[in-house]
C-alpha cells in the first residue's frame, strides 16, 4: 500500500465586519478573517496538506486569490474541489489531524460540527478528522487577536 503524509499551514488577519468561518462552520465572533475567500484558515491548511500529500502544487496554484472566480467563495467548495483532485490521482484519506491557534472566541463547542462537515466533504468518518484548538497564551499576533493560524497533517493511501 502506498501511504503518503502531507502538512499544511495557513494564516489570516482578523478584521471587523467579517464573518468567522472555521472548519466550514460559521462561528459567532466580533471579528472574522480578512481574505479573498471566506478566510477559513482550517480548511485552507487542510487543502494544502491534502495537495502536499499527493505531491501536487499548493492551494494558491489551484485557486488563485487573484481570480474573480474565487472571490468570497466558501472554502467548503475549495475543499471539495481539492478532494476531487486527489481522488483523481487515486488517493483516499486515512486520517487528518489539525490545530487552530486563536485567542478567542472559544471554538470547542463547534468542533463536532466541523468534524461532521469536513468528513462529509472528504467521504470519511468524523473520527478520522481530529480538530484541536489552542491559544498562544496571549503571545504574538494570535495572542493580540490580530490573526488566526491553522496547521493540518494528513495521511493518504493509494
Ligand atoms: Zn487561507
Please render the helix and strand layout as text:
Layout: E1 3-16, E2 20-22, E3 25-27, E4 31-34, H1 41-53, H2 59-62, H3 75-88, E5 92-101, H4 111-121, E6 129-134, H5 140-143, E7 147-157
Parallel strand pairs: 5-6
Antiparallel strand pairs: 1-4, 1-7, 2-3, 5-7
Residues 10, 12, 35, 41, 44 line the site of zinc ion.
| Total count of strands | 7
> In angstroms, what is the radius of gyration?
15 Å
Mean pLDDT: 96
Structural class: alpha+beta
Q: Compute the number of helices.
A: 5
**Quaternary structure type:** single chain
Terminal-residue CA separation: 7 Å
- The low-confidence runs, each spanning 5 or more residues with pLDDT under 50, are none
Q: Characterize the biggest β-sheet.
A: 5 strands, mixed
Percentage of β-strand residues? 25-35%
Q: What is the helical fraction, as a range of percent?
A: 25-40%
Task: Jot down its keywords.
binds zinc ion; single chain; 7 strands; alpha+beta
Could you explain the architecture of this structure?
This protein has 158 residues and is of the alpha+beta class. It has five helices and seven strands. The protein has helices at residues 41-53, 59-62, 75-88, 111-121, 140-143, and strands at residues 3-16, 20-22, 25-27, 31-34, 92-101, 129-134, 147-157. It has a five-stranded mixed β-sheet. The longest helix has 14 residues, at 75-88. The chain binds zinc ion. Zinc ion (ZN) is lined by residues 10, 12, 35, 41, 44.
Give a brief description.
The protein has 158 residues and is an alpha+beta fold. The chain has five helices and seven strands; from the N terminus they run E-E-E-E-H-H-H-E-H-E-H-E. Helix 1 runs parallel beside helix 3.
Amino acid at each position: 500500500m502506498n501511504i503518503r503524509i502531507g502538512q499544511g499551514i495557513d494564516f489570516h488577519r482578523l478584521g471587523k465586519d467579517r464573518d468567522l468561518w472555521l472548519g466550514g462552520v460559521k462561528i459567532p465572533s466580533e471579528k472574522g478573517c480578512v481574505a479573498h475567500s471566506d478566510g477559513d484558515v482550517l480548511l485552507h491548511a487542510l487543502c494544502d496538506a491534502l495537495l502536499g500529500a499527493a505531491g501536487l502544487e499548493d492551494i494558491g496554484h489551484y485557486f488563485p486569490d487573484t481570480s474573480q472566480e474565487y472571490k468570497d467563495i466558501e472554502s467548503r467548495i475549495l475543499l471539495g474541489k481539492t478532494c476531487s483532485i486527489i481522488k483523481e490521482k487515486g488517493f483516499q484519506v486515512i486520517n487528518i489531524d489539525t490545530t487552530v491557534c486563536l485567542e478567542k472566541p472559544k471554538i470547542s463547542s463547534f468542533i463536532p460540527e466541523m468534524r461532521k462537515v469536513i468528513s462529509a466533504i472528504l467521504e470519511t468518518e468524523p473520527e478520522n478528522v481530529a480538530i484541536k484548538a489552542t491559544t498562544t497564551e496571549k503571545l504574538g499576533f494570535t495572542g493580540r487577536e490580530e490573526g488566526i493560524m491553522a496547521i493540518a497533517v494528513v495521511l493518504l493511501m493509494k
